[in-house]
Amino acid sequence: MKPREQWTSKIGFILAAAGSAIGLGAIWKFPYETGANGGSVFILLFIISTLAIGLPILLAEFVIGRKGQADAVSGLKKLAPGKYWFLIGWSGFIFSFLILSFYSVVGGWILSYLGRSLLFQLSDLGDNGFAELFNGIIGNPWEVLIAQAGFMLLTVWIVQGGIKSGIERASKIMMPSLLIFLVILIIRSLTLEGAMEGISFMFVPDWSFFTFETALISLGQAFFSLSVGVAGMITYASYLSKSENLGRSAASVAALNILISIMAGLIIFPAVFALGYTPDQGPGLVFIILPAIFDQLFMGQFLIIIFFVLLLFATLTSSISMLEIVVSIGVKNQYERRRRTAIVFGLLIFLVGVPSALSFGVLSEPFMFGYLFFDFIDMLTSRIGLPLGALFISLFAGYVLTKKDVHAELNEQDVLVDIWRVLVRYVAPAAIIIVFVQGLMDVFGG
Questions:
Q1: Is the dihedral of CA 253, 179, 316, 267 positive or negative?
Q2: 10-444 has which fold?
């Protein structure tokens, strides 16, 4: 029987975990949520939410994963034999499957844009040309399906290679490249005339946006961007050796997530303000407004290629973690079945994602509660699935794992372990319940 793999280095694990966390949450969703919710105040609340709520749950997943040393279902069965806590693992399986089914659709859109940018087709489209292009792409059934299939093929190709040769190797290439591309684009954005208005929007507080609603959205963004709640970090940590410091690794992942989110803002908002746009453009910010902005810049066609390569890398680092959750549970201890399992689940995820891909064209009628199929799956997973998973992970770490168990994994001072246990026992569950209830109202309230 093939032995269970491990990460070959601490940096490989951190880059893979950070890549899982970053994804579209940092590069796509963070900028448009920031733009719609007042800029600096939202960023401040996002940082607080990440450190006070997201980080403790992230660390809880790390502790559970490394202690279990198995996939999320088997590991939780081992840690709580005869109990039903292993359902957390199956919940992660189901929601990762569903998230990737629509996430791969957005990955396909990115591939379509990248292909057009490489052919220099993202220029001189006029005032409404970029909006028409976006609507044309997402409404074209053959293009979205072929692009979605291409994105899933890339994801399957990486995951079937295993931890060392697949996920870790890809993360070591994509994450440093992502940081380099971010820096290049930030430099260009900050050198635009009028860029300081965007900097002020990001870092000078407008306290009129300091509301309960903004705090709630920032908390939801912290969950979404850290990828907690679907057992992804349990899965990744299960491949980690006992010699690594979990606390430092979790802090590194959270810090990278905050850093890259802010770096994405430093690309977008100085350019948005410098060229006369408004920041509250919503989800179309990346696909409609940014190409229009780059089209007005010197060497803009080259910069747009860099941006969509960056976005593709960020999206892939998250998609491979979601597929790994599914594959690890499907493989169990028969690691020689990894390649076949990755291909089979990749195909199934693609098929389940077909209605999402067609939601803006031939299946544009509301599916349920007034939502398109794509939007319903997005809401169901991000507003209900992620918070629900995070809640039970937090409760398991706080009440099932003993203090001795936690000490054995964290090897930290008593006071730090005590603070962490208070956060995962009381603070995080209370915050998660608020997000979960609001999510129910959003989904079922229509």
A1: positive
A2: Amino acid/polyamine transporter I (1.20.1740)
